[in-house]
Fold this protein.
Amino acid sequence: MTITLTDRETHAAEQSQVLRQHFGFGPLMHECLTSWNPNDAIVWYPSSGNDYRDILEFSSNRRDLHGIKRPPHLFIHTSVCGRMSDFRHTGDGYFLYDDKRTSIEAIRVEPVSHSDLLRRTVGLRDAHFAPDGLSNKPDDGRLGWGYLMQIRARSNKWGEHMAWVLRLECRNYDFFVRMIIQAGLRIDSFVQVRQGLGLGGCGLGTTYLTPWLTWAGVREMICDGEFHGDAKSFLKVARTLVKEGAPDVVDFVQVHHQLNPFQWSSYCVDGAQLAPTTRAPSLLAAWEQVRAACIHPASSWANQ
């Protein structure tokens, strides 16, 4: 199916409305949303921590290597570690990372407010220290904040790039349920690298979300081939997500790997394109199929 510019414009307008409704509309958010080119994408990086390498990997220097067609407009990072006050202040902004080869600086920062929808956590405890999600009364004093940032990423190798990043201190499952399933936000590109399983005894990784990725709009991803999980835990996740509004019928997903592996945080990572195919007989069958499609190439490279 050919997607026209009118379709893209309608899609961008709908996504802007969702973001405006649930994260406020300060001056920086206004600038971010009104500058949106309809052909540009939303990228979601769950369990991002303090990692901003996705900005460089989705840059004009690197997109072709990964088979990524659409340039990003907004990166959404969800994580449960750190505060802006943890970073070095630089006048109007903050240095988020600097190792003399690469520097990441938030040159403009705007706190975002959360709608009531995002203050209700999902009944899955994927990290024992974070039961409250985006709550006004976080469990450990670290959760519940969010910032829209204009980022300047400088790399000795890949040059300088500007990016909009919406950084949310919340659980991945809360964001997926509240923003994607219930609010209708659509994600164009997905980053599955370092899915956060080791932090705080976390047992539910983002790979359990993969059967719903194409339904959520994802057509491009960067993945590390690490696909942990078991059928029993997936079915637990699936029951909860369906109860929260996720479809209980999905399509099988064709995964086309670029076969241009590179190193990211010691993982062997590759770009891939996703496309829905035929209807899966069950959610478990869909999960097992996409699991096999995602895990095989990366695991083969890692063993070489």
Residues 154 and 160 are 4 Å apart (CA to CA). Residues 5-302 form one domain.
